[in-house]
Structures are given as C-alpha cells and as structure tokens.
C-alpha cells in the first residue's frame, strides 16, 4: 500500500487505539461522513466564546458569565496570548506549516501564554472530566518544538462542567520521553497500514457514537 498517513494527531491516534476499524473507515477509506453532534456544537460555541473573551475582551454570552473569573486568571497571566494556536511539526521535530507536505504531527492549543523561558498551555474541555494527560503531554512536547526559548511548560485542562483545572508541569527533557511513547503507537499504526489489518474492537462508543454501520458491533 502506498503512503497514506499525511499527519498524526492526538485525536486520530486515540481513534486508532479505541477501534482500528473505525480509524480505517474514517481516516483512510473515508466511508463515514462526518456529522456534528449536539455536544460538538456546544463545545465549539464555548471555545469561540472563550477565544473572543481572552483575545478581544468580548463579553461572554448569557449563561457563560460565571466562567469569567476563571478566564480572567489566564488574561492576567504575564506573556503573549496565542488563542486557537495551530501547531505542526515534521519527522525531524521541526516546526512546519499546518498543511505543509512534510507535516508529521499536528495539534491545536486553545490558549498558549508565552513568557520565555516558561509557557502555559491551556485546553478547554466541555465533556466529562477524565484523568488522562496524554493530550497535554503531546501539546507540551509540540510547544517545545515551536519555541526553542521555552524551557518549562505548565499545561492544563479547564473542565467547564466541573469548573475544575487539572494540570501537569513539563521540562524540555520530558519531550523526548513523550515522543518515544508516541512513536510506539505510530509503529503499531504503520504496521496496521502495511498489513491492512484494522480489526473491529468493541468499546463504549459502539452503541451511540459510531457511524461505522458495517461493523458487527455497531449499535451494541
């Protein structure tokens, strides 16, 4: 099979690990049309409101005013504010364009606060609180690739439902370990591509959240 992986991302890799068949149908075969869910629409609305509040000082919409005191902590932090920051690197872990031909990994941070030699990386979450830091790991590691002056990063999730912040601190040395773990996942994915082996894997998304209707576990 010819090369088909254009760029990796946390969400794409998460899909592969959750169910290889779902990854194949969505990302490679592209047999499943993307449909925006109600949760996705709400999340997009919240992200846009937060982006405008931090970047432009735009008043939060009705029903979101109570988030201001949390966002104000970000706006008050010293440093340059980068909202909805797209990040991309090539296989040499060098910064590249988000849609350039050599892009190997891409991601997007809801907010980055650059205050060299430190930075804060923020991701807004409108879903259920989870204890995985994998996405933050990758955002921090990518941020180190984008700015050589950054030596320490504080990355955090702001969980809107629980009004809770979970965070993790990183040094530049941590990036090597993060990429090493990610490369192990990439190797498994590349082997699946080489062998065209993408087995269906029953999981919590099968019943209500998967559009792969050809799968034997769909709806179960």
**Secondary-structure element order, as H and E?**
HHHHEEEHEEH
Radius of gyration: 19 Å
Please indicate the percent range of residues in DSSP E strands (runs of 2 or more).
15-25%
Q: Mean of the pLDDT scores?
A: 92
Strand order of the largest sheet: 1-2-3-4-5
Distance between the termini: 32 Å
Query: Which fold name is given in CATH as the topology?
Result: Lambda Exonuclease, Chain A
CATH architecture: Alpha-Beta Complex
- Under CATH at level 1, the class stands as Alpha Beta
Total strand segments: 5
Structural domain tally = 1
Number of helices, where a helix is a run of at least 4 consecutive DSSP H or I residues: 6
Helix amount: 25-40%
- What does the largest sheet look like? 5 strands, mixed
> What class would the helix/strand composition place it in?
alpha+beta
Q: Unreliable runs, pLDDT <50, ≥5 residues?
A: none
Shape: globular
What's this entry about, in short?
The chain is α+β, with helices and mostly antiparallel strands. The chain contains six helices and five strands. It has a single domain (10-195), classed as Lambda Exonuclease, Chain A (Alpha-Beta Complex).
Describe the protein in words.
The chain has a single domain (10-195), classed as Lambda Exonuclease, Chain A (Alpha-Beta Complex), CATH 3.90.320. It has 6 helices and 5 strands; from the N terminus they run H-H-H-H-E-E-E-H-E-E-H. It has helices at 10-18, 20-28, 38-56, 68-76, 134-146, 174-195, and strands spanning 80-89, 105-115, 118-125, 152-159, 164-171. It is globular and about 50 Å long.
């Amino acid at each position: 099979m010819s090369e088909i992986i254009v760029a990796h991302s946390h969400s794409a890799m998460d899909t592969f690990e959750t169910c290889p068949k779902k990854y194949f149908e969505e990302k490679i075969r592209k047999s499943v049309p993307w449909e925006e869910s109600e949760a996705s629409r709400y999340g997009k609305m919240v992200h846009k409101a937060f982006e405008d509040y931090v970047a432009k000082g735009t008043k939060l919409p009705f029903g979101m005013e109570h988030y201001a005191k949390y966002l104000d902590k970000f706006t008050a932090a010293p440093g340059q504010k980068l909202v909805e920051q797209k990040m991309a690197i090539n296989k040499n872990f060098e910064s590249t364009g988000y849609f350039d031909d050599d892009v190997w990994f891409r991601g997007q941070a809801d907010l980055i606060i650059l205050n060299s030699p430190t930075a804060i990386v923020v991701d807004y979450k409108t879903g259920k609180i989870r204890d995985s830091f994998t996405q933050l790991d990758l955002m921090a590691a990518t941020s180190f690739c984008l700015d050589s002056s950054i030596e320490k990063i504080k990355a955090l999730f702001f969980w809107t439902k629980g009004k809770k912040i979970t965070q993790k601190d990183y040094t530049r040395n941590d990036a090597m370990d993060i990429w090493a773990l990610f490369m192990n996942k990439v190797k498994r994915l590349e082997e699946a591509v080489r062998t065209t082996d993408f087995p269906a894997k029953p999981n919590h998304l099968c019943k209500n959240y998967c559009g792969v209707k050809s799968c034997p576990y769909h709806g179960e």
